[in-house]
Specification:
The protein is mainly alpha-helical. Among the domains are: 79 residues, no CATH class; 188 residues, Rossmann fold (3-Layer(aba) Sandwich); 240 residues, Alpha Horseshoe (Serine Threonine Protein Phosphatase 5, Tetratricopeptide repeat), CATH 1.25.40. The protein has 38 helices and 9 strands. The longest helix is centred in the first third of the chain and has 30 residues. The radius of gyration is 42 Å and the shape is elongated. It comes from Porphyra umbilicalis.
């Protein structure tokens, strides 16, 4: 404008230019480009001379620049003038995503989250409640939350319930307060119309915009708010504030459905109903796989039946079951497999082979190929892992991979597992966290606060789910896909982590009678069962490939511990796992155990005991296999190198010979006694190991078929008494009860002495055993003692015969409370 003023001053020097000056001023004020051009033309066409001519020459050069600047000025002035707001951005978008072919409908299927959501919405509409529900759907990444909500929004039942439509608000990692403001304006546009939207647009710069928009929203409603459905997708923990702002604007009569990875997000929304989603039902996963290979659920021309299987038994075994197990029916994982199958026209063999080799492969360096779907699944979980604060939290998450999935995990287990992280995570005011459990005032263990902080971070990231019971945090649940993903992050540290957890549980247990090599250093039965240890120690021992830990699980002490908790089925599972692990170690000549004769001998001993625990002593084939394995173990281990292990194998070989079916009975008895005396060369007198061999000798003589029966029973009673000199109730209550039970059976079969007195002595032994064996603490042993009491009463010669029989029946009935047909069918039949 300074240049314009200078030109005007020059033009004003002549009276001739006064009208021109006025026209230019008018053009400047109004920004009229055409008028400036007209002025320029008049000046050029003028033929005046002298001063005016010189002025015209100067103006001619100045007006060109003036016109250029005035054009820019005109455009700027036009841009600053009030214009009609553009509301088109609130008309397009904000609609549910379109579902593709990789989705199996679920709104009509019980067990699917889609069905649960629609049922809730229909219940709200039917009851006419004053306030609509807020439904939070939470689950790990890729579990199908968004597609479930998209199906709900577009299904006919929901479109009937909400005829005005669905507003879909999509959040993401880049969502900000501007995203929220835009979403609020879109809601105002639909619910309140253009006028209210224009008013709210003018308020977006104010700090109290949300509150003002909410007030205007409630005052300007032009439609029935209950006829709309709002879905807010993918709310992160850090975006709870955004969710709260959006809910503040929404009418309480409008149902809201939102999705999140973190269950805490749902908990922070007052009154929200929680729905978890983890995977598809197997039948729906099968349906998607069938669709991918172009398979119909029935043969052409055949009438459909309601429960007709999609795949044949052969197909299930060949590949379908394997895919379901690998993916755990995780929606994204199944969809990836289906896409690969479809791309290869149903050729499942290379797909399944690739899955089994690559699904948990930790490598990030290979290029992404169609045959490497793992990285696509990993990517969605990496997003969640990226929400963790630092590497310490990420290492803690990786360690979670060694824990079983779909199971409540006690916090004490996580505390043990995360002890390496506890020393570095914590508030600065607290200092370094001690690597041990805190003690409560009542003496029980309490989880360290740093563990709770780790757990809280993992839950916020959507990697774990919490289980609450009676107002307390009872444990955490890990999705199988997350568990496998976390395990893959451990890589070579996985074996060490399993080993460390076993050590953490057993390091404070007594470890007497240990060889220099540490034989039987894992007294796994001495650790208290905390609801996790007993059910998972075998899995950790197998994963750590620790021969000594595996062999320790084949001891009679571990069997007694499992029986004491009434979990013989669990013990059978332990044995099966140990057998498989030890077989793999023995068969693998490159395994480090083959470099140690003691470890190799222990592996053979564990295999022998595992077979006997798994199949029992009564099968001839199992007995012979056990004899071979124990002899091989003794070939590996010398008495001098590992005396306690050598003595253990001698004692157990004697037990096998005592029960042996094949061969001469007298010869087997002699071999058994010889093995027991070999063990006594090492087992020092008055130790529990020595007492065990004395007990075994008593059983061998009590069951001896040859020789003098009376002498055999007297010899057996003598050995039992020697065992009980060491196996006292205070020192070894369970073994004390066992020796009393066996000695009672010997008294019941005794030849010398009066029959009545022997039976009374037998019943006294059984009663002593029942002082320790209760139905709650040792149900199977308690039932065995009840069985023996019943037999003794039935054979009793003193007292009233009818009363004795009634008492016997009562004992048998008590035994049957534990000896059920389902739990122990053979014992049930015997009783």
């Amino acid at each position: 404008m300074a240049q314009v003023g200078s030109i005007l001053e020059q033009v004003e020097a002549t009276s001739f230019m006064t009208p021109v000056k006025d026209m230019m001023a008018d053009a400047i004020v109004h920004g009229w480009e055409q008028q400036l051009k007209d002025i320029h033309d008049k000046l050029i066409n003028s033929s005046v001379h002298g001063a005016v001519g010189r002025a015209v020459d100067r103006v001619e050069h100045g007006v060109g620049g003036l016109m250029k600047r005035m054009c820019e000025l005109g455009r700027n002035l036009a841009g600053s003038l009030p214009s009609e707001p553009d509301l088109s951005m609130y008309e397009v978008g904000w609609l549910p995503p379109v579902l593709g072919g990789g989705h199996v409908a679920g709104v009509d299927k019980h067990g699917r989250v889609e069905h649960a959501i629609v049922s809730m919405l229909e219940g709200y509409a039917r009851e006419g409640a004053a306030e609509a529900p807020r439904i939070g759907v939470y689950g790990i990444g890729g579990c199908g939350k968004s597609t479930a909500c998209a199906e709900v929004a577009t299904c006919e039942r929901v479109r009937t319930l909400f005829p005005l439509g669905t507003v879909w608000v999509q959040l993401s990692d880049t969502s900000t307060s501007e995203t929220v403001a835009t979403a609020i304006l879109a809601l105002v546009y639909r619910f309140c119309g253009e006028a209210a939207t224009k008013r709210c647009q003018q308020l977006t710069g104010r700090k109290d915009f949300v509150a003002l928009a909410a007030s205007d929203f409630q005052a300007s409603l032009m439609v029935d708010a209950s006829k709309w459905l709002i879905i807010i997708d993918d709310v992160r923990y850090e975006q709870v504030g955004m969710l709260t702002q959006l809910l503040l604007v929404v009418s309480r009569t409008t149902p809201v459905l939102f999705t999140t990875r973190s269950q805490i997000v749902v908990a922070l929304v007052t009154g929200a109903v929680r729905l978890s989603i983890s995977s598809w039902p197997e039948d729906d996963a099968r349906a998607l796989l069938a669709r991918a290979i172009g398979k119909r659920p029935r043969a052409i021309g055949k009438r459909p039946t309601e429960n007709e299987p999609v795949f044949s038994a052969e197909e299930e075994a060949a590949w379908v079951r394997r895919v379901l197990d690998l993916t755990q029916c995780h929606v994204l994982s199944v969809s990836i497999v289906a896409a690969l199958l479809s791309a290869r026209c149903g050729m499942w063999r290379p797909i399944v082979a690739a899955l089994e080799h690559q699904w948990t492969d930790p490598s990030f360096q290979r290029p992404l190929t169609d045959m490497n779907p793992m990285r696509s699944v990993r990517a969605t979980l990496d997003v969640s892992r990226g929400y963790l604060p630092n590497d310490d939290y990420r290492r803690a998450f990786a360690a979670v991979g060694i824990l079983p999935a779909n199971e409540q995990i006690g916090l004490h287990v996580l505390d043990r597992l995360w002890r390496p992280q506890l020393g570095v995570i914590g508030d600065a005011a607290e200092g370094a966290c001690p690597s041990r459990l805190k003690r409560r005032s009542d003496g029980s263990d309490a989880v360290h606060p740093s563990t709770l902080r780790l757990l809280d971070a993992l839950v916020r990231a959507g990697l774990l789910h919490l289980e609450v019971a009676d107002g307390d945090l009872a444990g955490v649940v890990i999705h199988p896909v997350v568990c496998g993903y976390a395990h893959s992050l451990l890589c070579e540290d996985g074996v060490a982590t399993h080993h460390r957890l076993v050590h953490e549980y057993t390091r404070e247990c007594p470890a007497d009678d240990a060889d220099t090599h540490g034989w039987l250093s894992y007294h796994v039965w001495a650790a208290a069962d905390d609801g996790y240890w007993y059910n998972n120690v075998a899995r950790h021992a197998a994963a750590s490939e620790d021969v000594l830990a595996l062999a320790s699980l084949m001891t009679d002490e571990w069997y007694a511990a499992r029986a004491r908790t009434g979990s013989l089925v669990g013990h059978q599972a332990d044995v099966a796992l140990v057998l498989a692990s030890l077989r793999a170690i023995v068969d693998d000549e490159d395994h480090s155990a083959h470099n140690s004769p003691m470890l190799l001998g222990a592996a053979h001993w564990g295999l022998a005991m595992g077979l006997l625990h798994y199949k029992g002593y009564q099968t001839a084939a199992i007995q012979e296999a056990a004899v071979i394995l124990l002899r091989r173990g003794l070939d590996e281990v010398s008495q001098a190198a590992a005396p306690f292990l050598w003595a253990e194998m001698q004692n157990d070989l004697g037990n096998v010979y005592s029960y042996r079916v094949n061969g001469d009975k007298a010869a087997n008895f002699q071999k058994a006694v010889r093995c027991y005396y070999n063990a006594l060369e090492v087992r020092m007198q008055d130790t529990l190991a020595w007492a065990e061999t004395q007990h075994c000798l008593g059983m061998a003589y009590a069951d001896r078929e040859g020789g003098n029966k009376a002498a055999n029973m007297e010899e057996a009673l003598a050995y039992f008494r020697r065992a009980l000199d060491v196996r006292t109730r205070d020192a070894a209550p369970l073994q004390w009860a066992d020796s009393n039970l066996k000695m009672g059976a010997a008294y019941a079969a005794r030849v010398d002495g009066g029959r009545a007195a022997n039976l009374q002595e037998a019943m006294a032994c059984y009663r002593r055993a029942l002082e320790v064996w209760t139905r709650e603490t040792a149900p199977l042993q308690w039932a065995a003692a009840q069985q023996n009491m019943g037999r003794a009463c039935a054979e009793r010669v003193s007292g009233n015969k009818a009363a004795n029989i009634e008492e016997a029946v009562a004992f048998y009935r008590r035994a049957l409370h534990v000896r059920t047909r389902e739990a122990v069918p053979l014992s049930w039949a015997l009783t």
